[in-house]
Specification:
The chain is mainly beta. It is about 5% helix and about 65% strand. The strands form four sheets. The protein has an 18-stranded mixed sheet that branches. Strands 21-22-23-24-25-26-28-31-33-36-37-38 form a twelve-stranded antiparallel barrel. It has a four-stranded antiparallel sheet with strand order 29-30-34-35, covered by helices on one side. The longest helix has about 35 residues. It starts with a strand and ends with a strand.
Length: about 500
């Protein structure tokens, strides 16, 4: 049925929508409007004595001068404009204040029962849905507040007022907080009558956590990719620099980040594949090589937020070794193209997303000495300096949240040693197990990220310890396979595991 139902003044019109029926039209001067389970009423109510929404009933419209309203479990009233009700009994039902782009006011003389109010607010300009109980309020009620990407310009925002009573209001949002721009806010009661979203309760929002993680991760990605190359150059040294040829390595690792300075914590899982080719430069002690590869890193954050970074890279490397003294120098220069994607789970159950591309450079120089010991043992002390820089980027999530990352920088110093043994298996076959330990320190302290004009610092500076073990197996004269595992732990960062598996063939 479509149209308007109007009773004469003093009439006794009663409208009952039986189960699974629908009606579109306005109702005026009615004694009773009853919407039963599964039914839908769309229209405005004016001068109605009693509105009853049974279980799972749906009503969409505005109310004016409705004396009594009851909303049963699973039932929902979606407001289309500011409305008024005399006595509102929430019997497990829900009132939805339109959508997140519009803001309405619900005026109620008396509120009772237990129910849910789905509301939205724009903290940046003070606009908000508002529940105004002019008389007595009782019961326990939940507020599900909509999230958005804008930052507040106010210290607090009032969302509920009650004239008197002992009603309790709480946030149903995940984490009992509302995500608004760079921060998340909790609901607090001030005095006996008013409920606010308050600036003093703010914590860093999932949106900020996610973009900070994205801006920080390329540094650990670049170093994770470089680990497989360092292993390759080590294999060349163990075999007197004569193993020029082609090679490949598959690798993976996990990083757990817990930055106390920003409150950002996340888990990064990286996996990748590198291909390379190298050759000895004439009769010299130099071996030169080229590499290319791809890695994928997945980020796991709180509230179901996630991010991913696809890294494509090319580079060159050179290793020099004096076979008489055992001294060596390894160097590498690598270019990366990063494709970043963010999906942020918000406290109201919605998601926002965004993506951007950027690029970076990384380089490393390592100096050490390969020392042969008795019975096939060898030891290799080394010192390394590595640096990485990733271009900054300005991008927005689809809810208007704006992030601008400064150039991310890293300067990592490392000293350590490798201890191994060469074991002949007969013929051209041999196996070289080894263990290694290192102490590293990250010197870069300021990698700034600006979100909605709020400045945060990604700081992973500090010292860390590294342990590893591996084996190189010469299966035949021209073919080798490799395996390595590692662990690292330090200030704000832990790598509970890393691994790489590879093979090489020499001409």
């Amino acid at each position: 049925m479509i149209g308007n139902l109007v009773a004469q003044e003093g009439g006794d019109l009663s409208l009952v929508l039986a189960e699974r029926s629908q009606l579109a039209g306005n109702v005026q001067n009615a004694q009773l409007v009853s919407v039963q389970g599964g039914s839908l009423l769309v229209g405005d109510l004016d001068r109605v004595q009693v509105l009853s929404l049974d279980s799972n009933a749906q009503f969409t419209g505005k109310t004016v001068d409705v004396q009594q309203a009851g909303i049963g479990g699973g039932a929902n009233w979606t407001m289309t404009d500011t409305s008024s009700v005399g006595s509102l009994a929430m019997n497990g039902g829900q009132v939805t204040f339109g959508d997140n782009a519009t803001f309405y006011r619900l005026n109620v003389e008396n509120l009772s029962g237990n129910g849910t109010f789905v509301m939205a607010s724009d903290f940046s300009n003070g606009n908000t849905d508002f529940l105004n109980v002019t008389g007595n309020a009782s019961g326990s009620h939940g507020l599900l507040m909509g999230s958005n990407g804008a930052d507040p310009s106010l210290d607090s925002l009032k969302v509920v007022h009650m004239g008197s009573g002992d009603a309790q209001f709480s946030l149903l949002n995940q984490g009992e907080q509302v995500d608004l721009g760079a921060y998340s806010y909790k609901l607090v009661q001030k005095g006996d009558q008013d409920w606010y979203l308050d600036r003093e309760t703010r914590t860093i929002s999932p949106m900020t956590r996610t973009v900070m993680a994205l801006f920080n991760t390329p540094i650990t990605i670049a170093y994770g990719e470089m680990t497989s190359l360092r292993s390759r150059m080590g294999e060349l040294r163990y075999n007197q620099g004569k193993n020029a040829g082609v090679w490949m390595r598959a690798y993976g690792n996990q990083h757990n980040i817990a930055d106390a300075s920003s409150g950002v914590g996340y888990q990064q899982n990286q996996r990748g594949l590198t291909f390379g080719a190298d050759a000895q430069l004439g009769e010299s002690n130099w071996t030169l090589g080229l590499l290319a590869g791809h890695s994928r890193s997945d980020l796991n954050l709180s509230y179901g937020s996630s991010g991913s970074i696809d890294s494509y890279y090319v580079g060159g490397y050179a290793t020099w070794m004096d076979p008489e003294s055992g001294y060596y120098v390894d160097s590498v220069l690598k270019y990366n193209r990063y494709q970043n994607d963010a999906k942020v789970g918000l406290s109201d159950g919605t998601r926002t997303k965004g993506d951007y591309d950027t690029h970076g450079m990384s380089a490393s120089v390592e100096v050490g000495k390969h020392i042969k010991l008795d019975d096939g043992y060898f030891i290799e002390p080394f010192a390394q300096v590595a640096a990485a820089a990733v271009a900054g980027k300005d991008f927005t999530l689809d809810n208007g949240f704006d992030a601008n990352g400064d150039v991310s920088r890293s300067l990592l110093g490392k000293v350590g040693t490798t201890l191994g043994k060469t074991i002949s298996l007969g013929g051209d076959s041999m196996i070289q197990p080894y263990v290694k330990a290192a102490f590293a320190h990250e010197f870069a302290q300021r990698n700034q990220v600006q979100v909605n004009n709020n400045l945060f610092n990604n700081d992973l500076s500090g010292s860390r310890a590294e342990l590893g073990a591996g084996v190189a197996w010469t299966v035949a004269k021209d073919f080798q396979v490799y395996g390595e595992a590692g662990y690292m732990n330090g200030k704000n960062i832990e790598m509970p595991y890393s691994f790489s598996l590879g093979a090489s063939y020499r001409f």
